[in-house]
Amino acid sequence: MTPTDGATEADAPQVQELRGHIDQVDAQLAELLERRALLAAQVQRLKPVGGFAGRDEGRERSLVAAMARRAPRLGERRLSRIMRAVIEAGLDAAEQDRSRS
To answer: What Gene3D superfamilies does its record include (predicted)?
Structure first.
């Protein structure tokens, strides 16, 4: 730890423990994102217009609003940015999978 970290030597074990918990959450989040991408790919295969052209902006707004109720600290504005990136990454992966087939 460097003096500019804002943490003291006594904080180090607590910081490490908290970072360990963050690592566990990140691992779970990665697994959930993978599951979400696989489900979204299935939806894309069933839609008459898929990929980025088939995005449902109303559904995305509703999804973000529902998530914001569960994560009020993040709120709709932040969650909107996060979910836009998640959705676009999933669509991109689905497009890549489709082009390989």
So the answer is: Chorismate mutase
- What pTM does this model have? 0.80
CA distance 79 to 83: 6
Is residue 72 situated within a structural domain?
A: yes
Q: What is the mean pLDDT of residues 75-87?
A: 97
Domain contains 73? yes
CB atoms within 10 A of CB 91: 20
Say if CB 76 and CB 62 are below 8 A apart: no
CB 59 within 8 A of CB 6: no
**What's the angle, vertex CA 81, arms to CA 100 and CA 87, rounded to 5?**
25
Tally of domains within the chain: 1
